[in-house]
């Protein structure tokens, strides 16, 4: 997957976790939590959705990489670059 | 060889079903076992003489407008991946707390309640506002919290005992497993869910939510077995290994999540000497349900729910008479903001009852006792609402005995054991508790209980 494709995967996950949020103007550099109502329960769901979709295990010490869209894409790119979209 | 699951859930009530949805969504192999012939547990439904009835539900608390991003209901829907339409909650019209010499009305707009208190208790309003701040700052969902007396905290802010009892009345009626007082965190959860957020109800009653939960659970691959009571939880070396059903079937599981109640679950581990001595609760109710030939509004009754006490001191405890007629809850499921009227008029009146009396009553006296106390409950309640007795076309009554049949709770207790097990753990490494005895109450609370425990221990 490319960076753009990973970004879209994360947007789809956020859309499922928080269907009442408008994500069109999401700023990739700012923390998700500043831009939407996302508590720790929801945050864990991002991790679990990724595990469900791509069998990728994200250790707890890496969670801080997932605070922003930019950070998430950067973190996932090497881990998902050989994985096809919709795997 | 026995069937094996990642997780077996005991009880298909709100908490068990919600936990099941979370586990099935994340591809866990999960089975929910329910002893009764239908789903729902305490919040169930039935059909009698061609009419639909709800068992527990008067109203769903924690109301929020569809699309709200914050609060328990929104959190719940997100976690379940369900839509606002799935619950179809319509807001209440107005409810009241009626005590001798004072009445407070409330709606789903909290400011209205504050104004009501300011006008009825002008001396207390500053204290009340400070209490509201204290409530807002309290983290009631901290699973490692210590228990503190709510009456003690509230009395630091409000000096008029009448107002204190009027505040406690709806909160205790709708969620206290302990008599007279509650834990402050429970008070905070109930205060927010009832006064801040308020009441709603699906047009079709609780069956709508339950059926959608089950459909969702099954579509995610979850298994549900009715008429599958758990006789025994088998263990070895500090771990639960399997459950034995009433019919002798054995089902193995890596984890077991029980919503059956603490005392009830401990008896499944060892019926003769339960490993943890947990006292079952004994707060239970009798409910009188009248079907009317008209809408209650046509008789001049517009309130959704009336909480009343004929005594200035509110007595929330197991009465030493079959039914405590001094106080009660009058609910009209018609008085929500629907787009069309319900099929028929309903008045439900609920009052505290002595479970021991109702459990021990010989079968041949049971029907007559239900009739007698139904008439007494209605006689007392009609001092607070228009007399509807000439409009009654059908009646049903449920008692602690009925509640035991639906829930398996030992005394037919409604809000579970007085002592809560908030972190959901037991002495067995892989046996967890959710539901009323875990401690999040109300319908939304029960669902969040299942979700919270599933997230914390069963999705790792």
Structure description:
The complex is a heterodimer of chains A (87) and B (460). Chain A has 87 residues and is an all-alpha fold. The relative contact order of chain A is 0.20. Chain A has helices at 3-17, 32-35, 40-54, 69-80. By secondary structure, chain B is of the alpha/beta class. Chain B has three domains: 3-46 and 205-279 and 415-458, FAD/NAD(P)-binding domain (3-Layer(bba) Sandwich); 111-193, no CATH class; 282-407, no CATH class. Helices cover 34% and strands 22% of the residues of chain B. The longest helix of chain B is centred in the last third of the chain and has 19 residues, at 363-381. Chain B is globular, with a radius of gyration of 21 Å. The two termini of chain B are 27 Å apart. Classes of the chains: A mainly alpha (87), B alpha/beta (460). The A-B interface holds A 16-21, 36-37, 39, 41-42, 44-45, 48, 51-52 and B 26-27, 67-70, 74-75, 78-79, 81, 83, 451, 455, 459.
Q: Please estimate the helix content of chain A.
A: 40-55%
What fold name stands as the CATH topology of chain A? Non-ribosomal Peptide Synthetase Peptidyl Carrier Protein, Chain A
Main sheet specs of chain A = none
Structural class of chain B: alpha/beta
| Tally of individual helices of chain B | 14
Number of DSSP strands of chain A? Answer: 0
Summing up helix and strand content along with how strands pair, one would put the structural category of chain A as mainly alpha
CATH homologous superfamily grouping of the largest domain in chain B: FAD/NAD(P)-binding domain
Order of helices and strands of chain A: HHHH
CATH class of chain A: Mainly Alpha
Largest sheet of chain B: 7 strands, mixed
> Residue ranges of chain B: pLDDT <50 for 5 or more in a row?
none
Question: How many domains comprise the coordinates of chain B?
Answer: 3
Q: Largest interface, with Cβ-Cβ < 8 Å?
A: A-B, 16 and 15 residues
Q: pLDDT below 50 for ≥5 consecutive residues: which ranges of chain A?
A: none
Q: What's the CATH topology name of the largest domain in chain B? A: FAD/NAD(P)-binding domain
